[in-house]
Amino acid sequence: MVKIGSFGDVIFEVSQKKTLTFNDLEMKSSPKWDEHSIHRNKAKLEFDGPGLIELNHTLLLRAEQGINPMKEITKLERMRDKGEAHHFILGQKPIAPNKFVIIDTSAGLRNIDQKGNVFSAEVTVSLKEYVESKSPVKKTTANTKQKTATSSNKKSLGTITITVKSVNIRNGPSTNNKILGQAMNGQKLTVYSVKNGWYSLGGGKYITASSSYSKLKKG
């Protein structure tokens, strides 16, 4: 037996008694970009991180190759409806670091006898990357409390007014940092400092200092 790979309970293999393979395996992904509309000008794009990977493939299920088509379809439907996440194994290793979930299945049933037995089927399966969240453990220390107190007593640089539809607020001065929320059009925010093109809002929050997104009023 030659094992090609697997996804959960579905084993892709080729042997003298059983053949279960897939055709047209497609893997795609697109980065995330936020589009901020600007009155009478072209919109501004802001990079918001990598997108999720999507996998699409077609399974050929034939009774003549030792496969029970309806049994394999039931496996896929069970994993889909329970929201099970599994690694998609190709060869001896996962095709991607994260697991995948089934978001859609479409089965074409072929060669059905008078008793309703299905002898062949063609199933299209769509998978999407599933990123397991890890809750960070927050530790409160004397230094943390001191920094918080210092920030609250810090003199502000001024106030910004958001001039576009929305702008991301992040936990660091970079588009690679995590998004904490959004500031909406017309909202006013107090800023304490500016460095390398980013305003510090205090409390570990940052927003872009580009004049395309907001106007600063000092004092």
TrEMBL record:
InterPro entries: Myoviridae_GpU (IPR009734), SH3-like_bac-type (IPR003646). Residues 136-155 are annotated as: Disordered. Transmembrane segments: none annotated. It comes from the Bacteria. Residues 138-150 have a biased composition (Low complexity). Residues 157-216 form the SH3b domain. This is Phage tail protein.
